[in-house]
Amino acid sequence: MTIFENKKLERDTFRKLRDEIFPNQRENVEKNVRLYVDSFVKVYKNIGYIGIYWPLKNEVDIRSLKKKFTLALPRCKDKKELLFYPWDEKPLTKDSEGILSPNKSSSLSYLQISMIFVPCLSVDKNLTRLGYGGGYFDKLRRDNNWRNVPCIGVLTSNCVSTIPLTKAEWDIPLSGFITEKEIFV
């Protein structure tokens, strides 16, 4: 099988696992993930913007961090590039991938973002992330300046792979991950 076929199989497997969590369980899982994320962020001093994501179907929702921290959301530009913008009170609009995001004229630089939380379909103990296959986060982090910004995966514990995930040459490892059961950095 090719790398692409292996990754598709992994995506199908972990999406199914993630989607099997019942709604009443999901509430508890998300609450515990948010507690871990909150405790992780509080360790840092002089925190700037925290990059998060607008959750898609059954991704762990960490948007409530907005009550405590200054957040930024990503926006896909022309289906090629991922940029972060401050998340303020202005209405969000859909980006080129159809995901709600800020629509500001100037994006934030890597110097303004203290850390980034990214959604994962899966991650392994080598910190290889399995996403949806768009490659946006890997493209962003190909730049060494962005690679130095801590990038933490967020997912449910049942989607942490016990075996190494398929890794392509363009995959850039995460700095760590957080589930409802652990912080792994």
Automatic annotation (TrEMBL):
Substrate binds at E59. GO terms for biological process: folic acid-containing compound biosynthetic process; tetrahydrofolate interconversion. Keywords: ATP-binding, Ligase, Magnesium, Metal-binding, Nucleotide-binding. It comes from Prochlorococcus marinus str. MIT 9314. InterPro entries: FTHF_cligase, FTHF_cligase-like_sf, NagB/RpiA_transferase-like. This is 5-formyltetrahydrofolate cyclo-ligase. It comes from the Bacteria. NCBIfam families: MTHFS_bact (TIGR02727). Its EC number is 6.3.3.2. The keyword Metal-binding applies. Belongs to the 5-formyltetrahydrofolate cyclo-ligase family. It holds the Pfam family 5-FTHF_cyc-lig. One of its GO terms (molecular function) is ATP binding.
